[in-house]
Amino acid sequence: MEIDMEKDDPDNSERTWLGASLAELYKGKGSWCFSIPPVNASKYHTVLYELPATLKEPPKPHISQSQPSDDDCVLMPHSEKNLFSTKEDGQTVIKLRWHIINENLLKPIKNSQELESAINSYYTSSLPKFTALHYFFEQVLDHHETDSFFQGLLPKIINLALQLPDLLPQSFLLLKSNHNRSVSLSQLQVATLLANAFLCTFPWKKGMSTCPGINFMRLFAASQRPKRKDSVMEKLRCLIHYFRRVTERCPVGVLTFERRFIHRSTMPRWDMLDNIIGRTKLHVNSAGTIEDDGIGLLQVDFAHKLVGGGVLEYGCVQEEIRFVICPELIVSRMFVEALGDQEAVIVTGPERFSKYNGYGQEFKWDGNFVDETPHDEYGRRRTSVCMIDAIHFKKSKDQFYPSAMLRELNKAYVGFSSSMKGNLSPVATGNWGCGVYRGLSTLKSLLQLIACNAAERDMVYYTLEIES
């Protein structure tokens, strides 16, 4: 570990960082010099579009000649197995739910009450009242903004959602527990999935899946906690801004979602490592943030074991904020099962759409963000997000048990390690598992540093009070 002050700043009057400079970590070659994992369709990597992605137009969907078993796949809204039972002339009639969805969404929808009624017409379970959604359109937005949404943007969201059978004609594998597996989608495919999530078209009921789900109804109903109502409204602003962007200009890039699992038997022997933190360069910064300043780095998401945490409810801390300023991350909730102790998720290529200010209850949408991150040779933005969940300690002292420290070391190592060798990007992280999770930042920073060393990566640590 190198802690070294630069010679050209003798009084350190404006210095916000210690350790190795970012230029040193970038090896003098700039932010985009690091190795990237390839996109190769295989048994373990499902690619849902035709290769290669040219960035001139959205890639065409790929249709596989073989379809895995339904138990291992996402149940899509347009699936022939997604059936709807209704009464007609006193008789029970079974229909394809997708037909009901089309029928009700293509009717004029002039306000949030009519939108709620349309969604209720094709949803099996009893839905909560969309009180937050009504408050948003009736109290937060002005009349012009509300009219613009229902007259202009909502029909575009519906049109995008109903393109789903054309853009994703087949289902695809879940990223299941204890498996190393990846899925790559185009940004347009992600957009149609999120449009369906906004309209709550995904079949869902309790116990149906081990994935957290992406229908937006819990967010639309999140108005019962007055102190958190404002941040819910700001999250809705972010998400509606995303739909405005992708319906005005069709995105042409792609993303890869990778579930990574390492068996306990092949984890590092932490008690036998030599020079445990000596090789890793460390940059500590008191002013920057992971998403703003960790460009080109492996950016850590302080995740919940159900990825996204409370993004579609009341949550508004580090993970939830990242998911609403980069809404493409939300789609992972559709196919990523709960994370185990030796698992992580790496997302390569998400685009950022929004600026923001504040944190938690003070979170505010702050307008459009133009993401100038360059694309890699596979059509993905050179942004990588590492989702790792920390232990939520009931008692702070419990984090010092050897078993707890071992678990956190293993978790961080899974997220930071790579099958590629050499020229790996540094890890951009911070107070992972602190705050309400009761982790001690000094301990968590050291554990992450040890994991970085074992994964042969440098580390950039942002010390702002941004926590799990």
TrEMBL record:
Keywords carried by this UniProt record: Hydrolase
Enzyme nomenclature, EC number: 3.2.1.143
Example GO molecular function: poly(ADP-ribose) glycohydrolase activity
Cellular component terms (Gene Ontology): cytoplasm; nucleus
Enzyme active site: D301, E319, E320
Stretches assigned to the PARG helical domain: 142-259
GO biological process, one term: carbohydrate metabolic process
Family, as annotated: Belongs to the poly(ADP-ribose) glycohydrolase family.
Name of this protein: poly(ADP-ribose) glycohydrolase
UniProt organism field: Acanthoscelides obtectus
